[in-house]
Amino acid sequence: MQSRAALQASIITCSLSSPEISGVFSGGEWGPNEDGFLIEWTVYQNPDQSWHYKYEIFKENGDPLRKLISHFTFSLSDNIAEDDLYNFGSDIDEVTFGTFDGEQGSSDPCFPEGKTIFGVKFDMIDENQGVAEFDSTRLPMWGDFYSKGGMSSGGWNYAYNVDIGVEVANLHNYTVTPVDDAGAVLSKILVPNTIPEPATMALVGLGGLSFIRRKRRT
Fold first, then answer.
1. Are 10 and 44 spatial neighbours (Cβ–Cβ below 8 Å)?
2. pLDDT digit string (tens) for 23-40?
3. Lowest mean pLDDT: which of 70-79, 137-146, 175-184, 185-194?
4. Fewer CB in 10 Å around end: N or C, the chain?
């Protein structure tokens, strides 16, 4: 199975990895013939009913990456409220919301042609990279990701889920494996659902607007 999820005592743990058959397309030192790429995430509900999201990136065998992460991007719903994500921690340095694609040149090399991610980008701290975590008032849903590292002898280091941009039939059913309209298994990650409930409609309206926030240090 390309993506796996386990719901145990309200803790969801999932992962995707290279090669492509396991859900991740990657290159450079992160490529399947080199170190490979593994993304693992844990999502659980806090005592105050908010949700905690944690993403960890490794070599395919679980060891730390040799070429560390420059930034990590994942998709969100079209409606964003700035306070949907907060309490940024671990290795996050800067947080940017907006639309991301391959038109940004070397900032997103090898981004799949014709695809875009509307969501959030985490620039990572130089000295210690590989873990991004935060809290959100939003429940999980299935989404896409793209990650970039520096350049090595094998070229740019990058990774993204193989079916980036493919619509998920069970988008909000985060306790089971994501599938498309035909029932085929998809390779997605869990991300916060930022489509607001009716009671919070007044918080949205930021649509395609891009904005940057520094990490809130604790």
1. yes
2. 999 999 999 989 999 999
3. 70-79
4. C
Please provide residue 134's backbone torsions phi and psi, each rounded to the nearest 5 degrees.
Answer: -165, 175
Q: Where are the beta strands (DSSP E) in the chain?
A: 4-8, 11-17, 24-27, 38-45, 51-58, 69-75, 85-90, 92-101, 116-124, 131-136, 140-143, 145-152, 155-161, 189-192, 211-214
Structure tokens at 141: 């849903």
* pLDDT digits 0-9 by tens, 51-84: 999 999 999 998 888 777 889 999 998 887 878 9
Residue 69's alpha-carbon distances to 80, 133, 156, in angstroms, are 25, 15, 11
Sign, CA torsion 176/181/183/189: negative
**CB neighbours of 53 closer than 8 A, spacing ≥ 6?**
41, 42, 43, 133, 134, 135, 136, 140, 190, 191, 192
Beta strand extents in 125-162 (DSSP E only): 131-136, 140-143, 145-152, 155-161
Among residues 115, 104, 139, the alpha carbon closest in space to that of 210 is found at: 104
